[in-house]
Amino acid sequence: MRDSGRQRSEDEKLAQSTDAVADITEMKRVEAELASASAVMRAVAENSPDLVYVKDSDSRLIYLNPATCRMLCGEAEDFLGKNAIDLAGDTPQARRILENDRRVIAGEETGTFEETFTGPDKITRVFHSVKTRWLGKDGEVLGLVAISRDITERKRVEDELRESEARFRALADDTPVFIWQADADINITYANRPFLEFLELKDVSEFTGRGWESRLHPDDLPVVHRVYSEAVRQQKPYTLEIRHRILRTGEYEWNFFKGVPRFVGGQFAGFIGTGVNINELKLAEAKLKESEEVLRAAKERAEAASRAKDKFLAQLSHELRTPLTPVLMTAAALSEDASLPEDTREQLAMIRRNVELEARLIDDLLDLTRITHGKLTLHAETCDADRMIELAVDIVRDEARQKRIHLTADLQAKHRTIHGDPARLQQVIWNLLRNAVKFTPPGGHVRVTSRHGQRLAGCSEPASLLIEVSDTGIGFSSEFASRLFEPFEQGNITGDQRYPGLGLGLSIARAIIEMHHGIITARSAGPGKGAAFTVALPMALDGATGSVPAQRENDSASEPEESLRILLVDDHETTRNVLARLLRRAGHDVITAADVRSALSAAERATFDVVLSDIGLPDGTGFDLMAELRSRYGLRGIALSGYGTDEDLRDSAEAGFVEHLVKPATIQEVRQALRRFAASCMGVEEYGTADF
């Protein structure tokens, strides 16, 4: 008995020992699993882009992952034991974070928070924080565990989206245009305030289903269904002009709508569009149709008036030029006669300059007409700007000398070639110089310079050439600066009628420069303080030498020329007699006629080399005469006329004239034309487009 009891006691001890070993083994296994799980969680925390941190019951950091360290700009040991106020200072942001921590630790709240924190880098970030109370094994509160995600960018985008939506709604509601959105079944899902007010609705919800159809004109409803269905099928934009009934009046008003497809996630979702009330436009169109005949008649009258004006200017030009021709021819010829006394030749040169000035004023009137009708043409070539400037200076030098004005040129541009019409560009430079001399009192200074400038907008040339004409003259006030280049503004701008001229030169200069893709500007410090005009032209860097318009007046009148038998036809007796005398003095055989009939009679009695004829004749035109003489005798001719429009030059060429000289012309110009004619008869081609 005693032995069996002892045996049971030993067996029980062995069993208890075995159970203890098993318990220890299980405990070790659990501890190992917990350690493994802790390592996994730590690895997750260490590699998480979110902020993972643990705080004790006093809200002090006892663990923070690398992402948190990066945000705080330091190492973990720098921040352990610190709370939000320690890290960011006593700010509303830090106090709010501490309050959130306190509520979580106290068990008052567990969940998510939106927290703002400004770190050491002075960057304010917004975080979405999830905080959970941390309990010990015995349930005691140890602190909290938190994960915070940086949502700063998301908040910025959300704020911008809200602002954009608010801005869109404000703009949409304030615009006078209807803005709407509809699904694929024509159900209105959005309408801005103007559209709702027009339809006398308070909210888009009142667009129940497709109840809006009851507001359409019965004739327009089928059109809407057809157009919208086709637009849905093709998923393309559409437009509609339809009528809506106004409830308060019962009348219909026209509206124009345009819709464009709307896609959501790549799927067609309907249309968004705009609309505008066009009822007034429709009423105006109806009235316009009623008055079409009146408008057409008014247009025809205006065109007729314009043609009459052009015809009047052409006739005026002819009547003014014709009596100037004998004066200019005589003065030009005698001013170069070395047998006359010097003072007499100077007086004749003065007469010549004033006649040429009068002719220039007439040319300005015709140029203005050409510019107005877009008919001013350019004959472009490579030009030497310095040579054009020097020639223009020579032309005004005598006038400047008479007024005791110091005229100087300072041409510093190394590259001076430009591409343009040399005659027109010289006209601009001459006009600026002449204005400077005219508006500068005796003893003053006029200076012309050239230099390089920057590339002009819209031009391929890499640089520009700047030509500036400055003076110490009367200047102008800033209020008139914008009107300087307007036609007929000279008197209004200067406020002084002592200065002659029509006020056309600058407006023509601007048109010519703009046709060359350049600009012209003016500046002045004020009345009495002088002025400066600057022309900027694209510069051609091709190394070409360039040319300038020929100085026909300076060509030697004594050059040998072939004697020609000339039929001279002009109804102006003085012009006819003076020109005949000067041509005979040059060695030509001249027969004169005053009209078409006598010219044809002379051609029947004698043979001629060339016809020199006016255009406006008492019993016909020079065109008719030239065509008849060319048909009968194969004659060619040179026109000499006060008519100088583009149409006149074109008609001259068609009639058979090989050249067209515009009165007043000098005897030198006539003789040069005859020399070119003689050269062409010998097979030397000297005529080109520039002659017409």
Automatic annotation (TrEMBL):
Residues 315-541 form the Histidine kinase domain. One of its GO terms (molecular function) is histidine phosphotransfer kinase activity. It catalyses: ATP + protein L-histidine = ADP + protein N-phospho-L-histidine. Keywords: Coiled coil, Kinase, Phosphoprotein, Transferase. Gene3D superfamilies: 1.10.287.130, 3.40.50.2300, Histidine kinase-like ATPase, C-terminal domain (3.30.565.10), PAS domain (3.30.450.20). Residues 565-678 form the Response regulatory domain. Its EC number is 2.7.13.3. GO terms for cellular component: plasma membrane. InterPro entries: CheY-like_superfamily, HATPase_C_sf, HATPase_dom, His_kinase_dom, HisK_dim/P_dom, HisK_dim/P_sf, PAS, PAS-assoc_C. Residues 37-85, 164-235 form the PAS domain. It is an enzyme of class 2 (transferase). The modification 4-aspartylphosphate is found at residue 614. Residues 111-163 form the PAC domain. Residues 147-174, 281-315 form a coiled coil. This is histidine kinase.
